[in-house]
Amino acid sequence: MKLSERLTGITGGGSDGWDVFYKARRMVADGINVTELTIGEHDIRTDPVILSAMDQSARGGHTGYAMVPGTQELREAVAARLTERTGVPTTYKNILITPGGQAALFAAHTATCSAGDRALFIDPYYATYPGTLRGVGAVPVPIQTHAANAFKPQPEEIAAEAAKGAASLLINTPNNPTGTVYGRDTLEGIAQVCIAHDLWLISDEVYDTQVWDGTHISPRALPGMAERTLVVGSMSKSHAMTGSRIGWIAGPEEAIEHLINLATHTTYGVPGFIQDAAVFALAQGTPLEEEVSAPFERRRALAKSILADQSTVGLIPAQGAMYIMLDVRKTGLSGEDFANSLLDAHHIATMPGESFGQSAHGHIRVAMTVADDRFESALKTLVAHAEKLAEQVPA
Q1: What pTM value is reported for the model?
Q2: pLDDT, tens digit, 9 for 90 and up, residues 199-214
Q3: What span, in angstroms and rounded, lies between the C-alpha atoms of 69 and 83?
């Protein structure tokens, strides 16, 4: 029987970008000790106090169907959080609770893109972005950025693509994979393009609690943007609740009303006991968020110190998130070839830059998600491996 082209075409007919990750996992299954610096999975697990709240809710009976838009309590808690942090008045009517940020991304593009619409996104990108756009029937259009500018998008380049026709623009700040945080000038330029070309802006802000340099600004707070912006949020990165699958979309009331209809016919909501745990977690405020994010800020400082003592591996300014993007072009290898050689030679797994688009060719992404001593050892080994390869490159 024939499967739909929308389903079979999600990866665009090529790799899904996770080949090195899968290779590393096969090595682990074979008993090889691999240092995994691939996915954005905390090396700590969800705080036991959050799990206790989840357990108490489940044992208290909140294991049946929950309200599809999310519980009133959680929607109001998320709305209060966004109002406080962005200054944009937000009520529960502006919030839909989703099974994680990925489901929110899919729903947001379902809301904004009709079949065949061009959907813009910034390259480098989180690996699921193009497939998400194809999955809703849109045509993914990457906007190239440049390492020399820390991979920050240029509004005039976005405008050039928008002028050809587009329904939406997807951005992510703090950024995965580059660690770049978009400043006010960049975001104001993007906002002007969205208004001029009547674009929906979908803003992926799941790393908003992980900012090391600068300030996180939600574009929803910029003039004229609240009515044309859908914000994707999540508890995964901020509260180490990756497996709980709890996220949200914030946007105009009319859009949320229609998105609730979509949720009724797709996910049918999120388990109530998980939502209750999320309410508890949000109520702990910034101290818990800072505790979760502290290891990445510490390891980022460690990486800067190690990389400052050599000139072979370049560091893209790591302003936020739990990753560093490294330039390995002096080795003469692509990011994919370098990542494979590092894994084969030293059992250290990183993600090739090419997994995140062509703009990051010759780079690798390193997740700062192992203990400090192991991270330091792996990074020093990575540098030594790069230096050895660079010596073999013809002058």
Answers
A1: 0.95
A2: 999 999 999 999 999 9
A3: 19
